[in-house]
Write a structure and sequence with these properties.
It holds the Pfam family CCG. This protein is an alpha/beta fold. Helices cover about 50% and strands about 10% of the residues. It has 14 helices and 7 strands. It has helices at about 10-15, 15-25, 45-50, 50-65, 75-80, 85-90, 95-105, 110-115, 135-140, 145-155, 175-180, 180-200, 210-220, 230-240; strands spanning about 5, 70-75, 105-110, 130-135, 160, 205, 225-230. Helix 13 (about 210-220) links the parallel strand 6 and strand 7 (about 225-230). The longest helix is centred in the last third of the chain and has 17 residues, at about 180-200.
Amino acid sequence: MKVSLFITCLSDAIYPRVGEAMVRILARYGIKLDFPKVQTCCGQPAYNSGYFDEARAAARTILDAFEDSDFVVSPSGSCTYMVHHYSNLFQDEPLMLEKAKRLEAKTYEFTQFLVHVMGIKDIGAVFPHKVTYHPSCHGSRLLGVKSEPMDLLQEVRGIDFVPLPFAEDCCGFGGTFAVKMPDISGAMVTEKAEHVVETEAEVLVGLDMACLMNIAGQLRYRNKPVRVMHLAELLYEGVKSS
């Protein structure tokens, strides 16, 4: 089967190690990820700001990039869910609407793909550290990714998992929200960072680098030595050391 990597903007430009971890984990199971180089932004910033024509232009590029893929896998629940909005964008264009529905049906967030498509929960990782987990809003509330990361984390040997207080609360990033309402956003991420520190965890893990970047910045500002990682990074580091 042809499995393609939808890398997303932040992972491509700022956190390439997340994509590398995904590629190396899936390679252990015989999957060589295809990478369509024409892929670009999914259009979410434009869509959330009401610029639907610009969002449609970005969506067309994504639809073309992954048209021949059997599965599409992404490290971001937020960008993965944006694909679900394509049906709204193309509701008046029957051919594009059909393409949008096909892409939606075959696009998965990384942990969804591992657990539901590959049927894998235990990849043999060892990670002897105290870890807490932040469930990003789009991934957990809209895409419905809740049990999958927990299924994977509970199989990691040596891990000391500590629940994050008020985990479901937003970190305050919200894309353009952080720009338009910086004071509210700053208050929210300050509260989130306080809860992370409260756990005394060595590592904060999550599924969306936008949210993790926001929280990591606040933790650095407070001089808190908490390592922030995407779950794919934690799992790959765990199998390398096992």
